[in-house]
Write a structure and sequence with these properties.
This protein is mostly helical. It is built from 8 helices and 4 strands. Helix 2 crosses helix 8 and helix 3 packs across helix 8.
């Protein structure tokens, strides 16, 4: 039997896995330190799902990671995976006429005004990865970077973003700033994305629902 490590596709996949795990370890470690500083000021808990409503843009690495998560969920619990995919397909069909880009492939056009209008119009639609019964994420370990970093005050690309509106409700500005986190100081995510661009393929962003359906088609 052929060693799967000799398969070029598997070699590439494992290389991406290693790089992504390094990124997630760095980001999750920084956020954990921020959460310890925040203590009770951080309201994020299982079942608190306000941030899991409404589509948003994700990059190629996020989409790839979600695909890995879907494959794992399909192996572990096919029924739950099928439910996630059905929610994703329903959302895509509902958005087909107004999607700001390629509605067949789920590629956003890059027109910020059109995208912002679309996201605002669909802001009440739950993420397909959100389990309606438990209000928890079925793909939590594989969630996009925007999901991982939500809650705490964070800094990205020189921008200081505020915390979730449910967190730090009684905190002073000084307390909020003391909990601010720069999740990826070393720029690991951008380095991975640059490598993916060098390898060829799509550069345009997509949204969660499309990435889940696309990963199922690619099996």
């Amino acid at each position: 039997m052929r060693d799967p490590r000799e398969d070029p596709a598997e070699v590439v996949r494992h290389s991406r896995l290693r790089a992504d795990r390094e990124l997630l370890a760095t980001v999750d470690g920084a956020l954990a330190a921020g959460a310890r500083r925040a203590g009770a000021e951080l309201a994020c808990r299982p079942g608190c799902s306000e941030c899991c409503v409404g589509p948003f843009p994700i990059n190629r690495l996020d989409a790839w990671r979600l695909g890995e998560g879907m494959a794992e969920l399909q192996r572990r619990d096919p029924a739950r995976a099928a439910a996630v995919l059905e929610r994703a397909r329903r959302a895509i069909e509902a958005w087909r006429a107004t999607f700001p880009g390629d509605a067949d492939r789920g590629r956003l056009s890059g027109n910020e005004a059109a995208e912002d209008a679309f996201f605002e119009a669909q802001s009440a639609v739950p993420c397909p990865a959100l389990d309606p019964a438990t209000q928890t994420c079925e793909l939590y370990a594989h969630r996009p970077m925007a999901c991982r970093t939500y809650g705490l005050p964070v800094s990205f690309g020189g921008q200081n973003l505020p915390p979730c509106r449910l967190c730090f409700t009684r905190a002073t500005p000084e307390t909020i700033e003391s909990c601010r986190v720069t999740p990826d100081k070393l720029g690991i995510e951008q380095a991975i994305l640059q490598r993916l661009r060098r390898d060829g393929g799509e550069e345009s962003e997509t949204i969660v629902a499309y990435s889940l359906v696309e990963s199922d088609r690619a099996k």
